[in-house]
Amino acid sequence: MSEIQCEIAAEPGMIIQRVVLSSRPGKNGVPVAENFRLEQSTMADTIQAGQVRVRTLYLSVDPYMRCRMNEDTGSDYLLPWQLSQVVDGGGIGVVEESKHGDLAKGDFVTSFNWPWQTVAILDGSSLQKLASQD
What we know:
Blueprint: H1 2-9, E1 14-21, E2 36-43, E3 51-59, H2 65-68, E4 88-98, E5 108-115, E6 119-123, E7 128-129
Antiparallel strand pairs: 1-2, 3-4, 3-6, 4-5, 5-7
């Protein structure tokens, strides 16, 4: 009986997969797959006013990201990725749920700060709606 009560009392959430930075290659080191880790995590399944839940469709991997793998990015405008934190970059996804006035379920959206995870809750004002190709 106590096992059932624990399951019922657990916070609701959804299981997602995400990519985190697990190590730094060093200033002149070559990035390798071991610098990253694929994790399974639980994410809240409720969104607040102004937010949207999006499913990731495409992620961009660009040369500038190499700089973000080290604490010293060599640039004033690039922030480093933090160890054991989700990496981010350009991405495209589809809105699954919205509490933002300009975005609706089914809209395709993009951002330059897209977290590398299967589903994310994002501030709708940080997203750009993509035009339909009807």
